[in-house]
Amino acid sequence: MMTIKETFPVTAGDMTCAGDVSARIKRQMKQVGVPAAVMRRVSVGTYEAEINLVIHSLGGQIDYEMTEEKITIRVVDNGPGIPDLKKAMTEGWSTASNEVRNMGFGAGMGLPNMKRNADEFQIESTVGVGTDITMVFNI
Amino acid sequence: MTIREIAGILDAKWLCCEEEADREVRYAFASDMMSDVLAHVGEDTMILTGLINSQSVRTAEMLDVPCLIFVRGKIPHKDAIQRAEMIGLPTLLTGCSMFESCGRLYAAGMGAFKLEEYNGEGGNDDD
């Protein structure tokens, strides 16, 4: 059975490269013929996660795994962790800076949008340690 | 409506991929916030924005939108246009404001992508 696995590091603070990992994952999905609707959901979820890593985290990585049945995106960062997960999952709630808002992000839609697009969504976060998100998309 | 017709309605100038002018567009969504675009844009929906950095193009790329229009005559950053060219995204620039761009397109029959029904409360995805 076909399995594709890859890990991509994401650097904190570098908005010019934000989206590179998502674009690479999208190209891989296109190459193997993932249906357009699934590809769009994975792309949106991964891009939101990548933007979050760049603007909120101290850096981290995105793991991508594809089998014939599903695509799993795991996003792990090196902190700082989210103090109030319930608030962070609320649409419109954001701690983003004005600089980030000027880049078109920080409307407080990221985490809820990841959850909405994924078939399974899990998030764990510990302040001082980091955040660990898993999104599963059925093909 | 084709992108060629849209360009005419908005007196817009092509920034790249004019060879795609006959591509059909059914809906439009207008916002300077890419977070909102990512949360709301569906299939066959073009984006109108005043956000001129490369994140507007990257957002369009993730959503496979048929066309991207920069409004208010704001010339996008060079890396944004380069990326649009690279991924084959038809991209235009209009001198119209966001309001006028939307008004002209709506009057010409462009559809609005239907958002999930607004329930009168702030959004909450706790269910």
What is the level 1 CATH name of chain A? Alpha Beta
Task: Examine the secondary-structure arrangement and name the CATH architecture of chain A.
Answer: 2-Layer Sandwich
| H and E order of chain A | EHHEEHHHEE
- Domain count of chain B, please report it: 1
**In the CATH hierarchy, what is the class of chain B?**
Alpha Beta
- Using the 3D structure, state the CATH architecture of chain B: 3-Layer(aba) Sandwich
Largest sheet of chain A, if any? 5 strands, antiparallel
Largest interface: A-B, 32 and 26 residues
Q: What's the shape of chain A?
A: globular
Question: What proportion of the residues of chain A is helical, as a percent range?
Answer: 25-40%
Which structural category do the helix and sheet elements of chain A fall into? alpha+beta
Strand line-up in the sheet with most strands of chain A: 1-2-3-5-4
The CATH homologous superfamily name of chain B equals HprK N-terminal domain-like
Which characteristics define this entry?
heterodimer, A: 139 residues, alpha+beta, Heat Shock Protein 90, five-stranded antiparallel sheet, 36% helix, 27% strand, globular, B: 127 residues, alpha/beta, Udp-n-acetylmuramoylalanyl-d-glutamate--2,6- Diaminopimelate Ligase, Chain: A, domain 1, 5 helices, 17% strand, disordered C terminus
